[in-house]
Amino acid sequence: MPQVSSAKSSLTREAVRAEYLQAERNGTLPEVGEGADIGAVATARSNLTRDAVRAEAVYAVRHGQQLGGEV
Fold first, then answer.
1. Higher pLDDT among residues 19 and 2, named by residue
2. Is residue 23 one of the residues assigned to a domain?
3. Which domain, by its residues, includes 29?
4. pLDDT digit string, tens, across residues 28-47
5. pTM for this one?
6. Among candidates 44, 46, 67, which has minimal Cα distance to 57?
7. Domain-embedded: residue 27
8. How much is the pLDDT for 34?
9. Which residues contact 42 (CB under 8 A, 6 or more apart)?
């Protein structure tokens, strides 16, 4: 569970909301949550075909080289 801060802020609720909306418009909000780092993974390119990747996954599962999952 995240810790709750008891520190007082000098910003008003309206100022924080305005900063948030500005960052949202500028596209400068940090990515958070599940899959937030997927961009780093998705930019990698493979030379393998879809069938070759599937065959590797099936082999890995059958030979105990992978922790299950859908194949």
1. 19
2. yes
3. 13-62
4. 887 776 666 666 666 667 89
5. 0.38
6. 67
7. yes
8. 67
9. none
